[in-house]
């Protein structure tokens, strides 16, 4: 089962990903930066593009999806596409 880290403010996205069958852990941005990137298949954040770039630099082995402006379904589709690639 794929394991997804979701920023704590993204409740509707968390619920949608859980319905899709993913194991979802809710983390703060700080916890994401401090986590072992191999623990997760994808990280979903609510922040700006700058936040995504900064986080991606810290967790180079884990894809980061910026959920800003996306619906839960759009994020779920991006997660599915990303998981298939890795």
Please summarize what this structure is.
The chain is 45% helix and 20% strand. It has helices spanning 11-19, 29-34, 49-58, 72-85; strands at 3-7, 23-27, 42-45, 64-66.
How are the elements arranged and paired?
Blueprint: E1 3-7, H1 11-19, E2 23-27, H2 29-34, E3 42-45, H3 49-58, E4 64-66, H4 72-85
Parallel strand pairs: 1-2, 1-3, 3-4
Helix pairs in contact: 1-4
Structural class: alpha/beta
Give, in spatial order, the strands making up the sheet with the most strands. Answer: 2-1-3-4
CATH homologous superfamily title: Response regulator
Tell me how many strands there are: 4
Which descriptor suits the 3D outline?
Answer: globular
CATH architecture: 3-Layer(aba) Sandwich
| Poorly predicted spans | none
Global mean pLDDT: 85
Query: What is the beta-strand fraction?
Result: 15-25%
Total domain count:
1
Q: Could you name the CATH topology? A: Rossmann fold
Please describe the biggest sheet, giving its number of strands, its sense, and whether it closes into a barrel: 4 strands, parallel
Report the helical percentage: 40-55%
The value of Rg in angstroms is: 11 Å
Question: SSE order in H/E notation?
Answer: EHEHEHEH
């Amino acid at each position: 089962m794929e394991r997804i880290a979701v920023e704590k403010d993204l409740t509707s996205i968390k619920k949608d990903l859980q319905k899709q069958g993913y194991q979802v852990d809710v983390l703060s941005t700080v916890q994401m930066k401090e986590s072992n990137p191999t623990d997760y298949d994808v990280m979903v954040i609510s922040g700006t593009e700058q936040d995504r770039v900064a986080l991606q630099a810290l967790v180079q082995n884990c894809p980061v999806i910026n959920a800003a402006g996306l619906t839960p379904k759009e994020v779920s589709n991006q997660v599915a596409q990303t998981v298939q690639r890795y």
